[in-house]
């Protein structure tokens, strides 16, 4: 870590004593909270794609842009990955494993969802990874530039349309393979897990069960408290180290106060090794906020490279580094040291760019401005983040300013339910596994209790964001091995019951 | 009945002996088969609306035109009828009876669905009759003319959008009445019954059960044989009188042969008392075909005025009139005598106009050209109608020619299921009554067997098209009284179980 010039240090120390902890009111909104995926994550390059151990064909399927109207719109090509290597075919009623592709390049999800590939030979399953419209190569209007041009071209980026894409694709692929009777098992993680759940609810005739990992289907409207997410992140840090928690908690005021001085932004830029000059202290806060939140999501027990290359138990490592600096080290240096675990664990980054998406139009940002209205807040008593209340109005303004679109904050619950989930899911749903790790900040908006005999929650205390979907490793702790074994057992049960019911149907009628 | 000039009679008699029964191939397609509702039915006038014994308020609700995209489209006003006269309110968790409005003016359905009104006081229920978009007053783009202008304005007339209208309306009305916990019971007849079923499947969190009367949810793709409809109509006539069945069966050749002669169309126009000159014999065939089919739908055991004012057991009356003409009466006179039961039972019609919809654009015609692709055929061995095979291509051509739209024949089953209905509905559905009468030609495409403990079929041998939904009368036969009693019992059961589950939830937790 570069050392700071003496004048900077003095200024920092001065601020540390001068700035009152609540000297300003931070202007925040849910808009700045992290999405499921990190915008800094490294998308798969050809090299990365080539490095995956999984073999598949890449195919394309023509889809309607609006399944629910007959408006004359151009169709688009949906990409999907398919492997029939282990499939035992229609005569055996062999299953089809269908991953509900979420907000990113499908090859990235295929590479990071080892479980599906590892289970395929065991079940004699076909594997399909369809890409979500408006992500990866599955662009309407011919290109990302056209698809993301404005609200009128982005209009069809909705979860209902994505589900209908899946429904049409499943139906057509089964028809083409004469596999109409082969059972489909859905998989999905995070938003993909929400889609898998919703597929079970909206298209129950097209699958027999779903593994929905880390799927916060209840993080809408007023179903769960909006401060859930940040409370979980904060608890994860406090659990590792109270001083680490306090350092982070106190850092926001220091940053914001410094941001208000003449030379403060320049000083912050230097302290955090930014490639360019900081435009506002808030940009830095958001960058730090993201890191803490993603650290909580990726707080896996062994080194992994999901959102970023990280060590095992990365929060422990962040806190170890922060805490182990000598007494008297200034707070921002501690923060920088900690945050480097997230942004620069490989040590190869010379400087940091806070915004690698200068146009600001990302698919998830659009979705979060239309349907995916997940209220977020930070509670001053329990959170290490700056306190803020959920402010729908400011989100609405942001969305109108950005896209000329007005969000529909009550739509997802109208369309998919969510209030009184036990009665609803318990009455009409079946065969869903909600797997969650309590370290995952999204677990607060997910289903953590069994709802019926067939809608079960597998909750792991030390799990983070859908670790269970990843490939098995030699380092897997016992609880993870057990969790996956439970999942396999449940899926086996669904398949056996389905096959039994079919065998009954296959019997010739004795008499009518 | 006017007598025919001698020369005409001679020509007719000649044709009767000369024309071989299968001398021509009738160009027919599913397009000419009847929809659920008769295009000749009398829509409610203000007088009719005013005459209904049911009291309600008329209100309007602003809806999105495309619920599943964020395209910038003009909202429209959905009309709905509401009565809270008997509602016992949220504190009693009193139910909401919600009729899923179908392809017509909602006041007409409200006037013809007495059952809902009669059950409301018994259950302390609120009653809501929402109108289906693009029908009655619920016109997008401000007027029927604009809404029906072309495929781009009609694009949003789909069942999924109608269901979403219902979902949003239910959610908002419940919120406004603080009635979130009040159970909703859905009702629907015919296409409205299909909508009620699909509401249970797609929005199970918004209702606790549905009475789906005469809802042919299986009349799609290759689920049931396409000749089902015409076989049932034919059987209904044969059951009453074999000679009547034969007269009708033989009449088509006579009509078509006559239509091919120089003076034949003029002769047919006179024989059938048409107001204008017939343009083709096929127009007459379609007009007759419609009458037979609607007679089967409305073959109620007592006089009713649903599609048309008709006597009790109208098919019996048609056959009685046809058969009772003296020996030697020519076949077309018999047909005219019979058909007059349907088109002119009141005896007030001086001449008949075959097409009261000169623009041809009706809402159901659009729906039948887009999603509602119900294959129809007529089997030469079992049907009294001219034989024809299901020909999707000709339907497709008609639709493209009429609207520049291409139908999606496999979409409804992809979206709502239907193949393997027992497994699908039995696994994921609950609380649906499929009521059907076997005289109804649509019963062949409906659910006629119990699927589970809570998805039950109430089948009546002598019932026609959703007679059970009509108001009770002194003439109701026992089987109809019994059928309604079974419906009430089932609905009571749903409500009791719901209330019980809520009472459990209302108990304070003893410990956590």
Automatic annotation (TrEMBL), chains A, B:
The keyword Protease applies. GO terms for biological process: proteolysis. InterPro entries: AB_hydrolase_fold, Peptidase_S28, Ser_carbopepase_S28_SKS. GO terms for molecular function: dipeptidyl-peptidase activity; serine-type exopeptidase activity. Residues 1-25 form the signal peptide. One of its GO terms (cellular component) is vacuole. It comes from the Eukaryota. The keyword Protein biosynthesis does not apply. Keywords: Glycoprotein, Hydrolase, Protease, Signal. Belongs to the peptidase S28 family. PANTHER family: LYSOSOMAL PRO-X CARBOXYPEPTIDASE, PROTEASE S28 PRO-X CARBOXYPEPTIDASE-RELATED. This is Lysosomal Pro-X carboxypeptidase. It comes from Cuscuta campestris. The lineage of its organism: Eukaryota, Viridiplantae, Streptophyta, Embryophyta, Tracheophyta.
């Amino acid at each position: 870590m570069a050392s700071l010039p003496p004048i900077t240090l003095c200024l920092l120390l001065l601020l540390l004593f001068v700035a009152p902890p609540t000297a300003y009111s931070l202007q925040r909104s849910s808009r700045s909270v992290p999405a499921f995926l990190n915008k800094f994550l490294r998308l798969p390059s050809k090299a990365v794609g080539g490095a995956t151990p999984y073999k598949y064909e890449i195919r394309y399927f023509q889809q309607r842009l609006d399944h629910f109207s007959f408006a004359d719109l151009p169709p688009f090509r949906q990409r999907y990955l398919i492997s029939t290597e282990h499939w035992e075919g229609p005569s055996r009623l062999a299953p089809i494993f269908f991953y509900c592709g979420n907000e990113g390049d499908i090859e990235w999800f295929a590479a990071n969802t080892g479980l599906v590939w590892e289970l395929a030979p065991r079940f004699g399953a076909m594997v399909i990874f369809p890409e979500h419209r408006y992500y990866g190569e599955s662009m309407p209007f011919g290109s990302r530039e056209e698809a993301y041009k404005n609200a009128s071209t982005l209009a069809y980026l909705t979860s209902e349309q994505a589900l209908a894409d899946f429904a049409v694709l499943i139906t057509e692929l089964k028809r083409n393979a004469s596999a109409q009777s082969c059972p489909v098992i859905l998989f999905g993680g995070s938003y993909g897990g929400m889609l898998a759940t919703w597929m079970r609810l909206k298209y129950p005739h097209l699958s027999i069960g779903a593994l929905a990992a880390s799927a916060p289907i209840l993080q809408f409207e007023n179903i769960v408290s909006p401060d859930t997410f940040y409370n979980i992140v904060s608890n994860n840090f406090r659990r590792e180290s109270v001083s680490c928690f306090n350092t982070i908690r106190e850092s926001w005021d220091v940053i914001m106060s410094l941001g208000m001085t003449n030379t403060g932004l320049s000083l912050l830029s230097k302290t955090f090794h930014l490639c360019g000059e900081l435009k506002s202290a808030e940009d830095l806060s958001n960058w730090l906020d993201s890191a803490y939140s993603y650290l909580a999501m990726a707080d896996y027990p062994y080194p992994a490279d999901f959102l970023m290359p990280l060590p095992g138990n990365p929060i422990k490592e962040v806190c170890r580094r922060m805490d182990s600096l000598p007494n008297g080290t200034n707070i921002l240096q501690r923060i920088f040291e900690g945050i480097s675990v997230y942004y620069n664990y490989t040590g190869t980054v010379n400087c940091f760019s806070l915004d690698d998406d200068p146009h600001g139009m990302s698919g998830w940002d659009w979705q979060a401005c239309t349907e995916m209205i997940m209220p977020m807040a930070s509670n001053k008593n329990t959170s290490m983040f700056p306190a803020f209340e959920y402010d729908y109005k400011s989100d609405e303004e942001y969305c109108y300013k950005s896209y000329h679109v007005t969000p529909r904050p009550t739509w997802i619950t109208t369309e998919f339910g969510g209030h009184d989930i036990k009665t609803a899911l318990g009455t009409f749903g079946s065969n869903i596994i909600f797997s969650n790790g309590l370290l995952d900040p999204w677990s607060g908006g997910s289903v953590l209790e069994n709802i019926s005999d067939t809608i079960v929650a597998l909750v792991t205390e030390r799990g983070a964001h859908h670790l269970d979907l990843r490939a098995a490793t030699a380092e897997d702790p016992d609880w993870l091995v057990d969790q996956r074994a439970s999942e396999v057992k449940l899926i086996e049960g669904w398949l056996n019951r389905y096959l039994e019911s079919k065998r009954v149907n296959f019997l010739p009628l004795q008499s009518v």
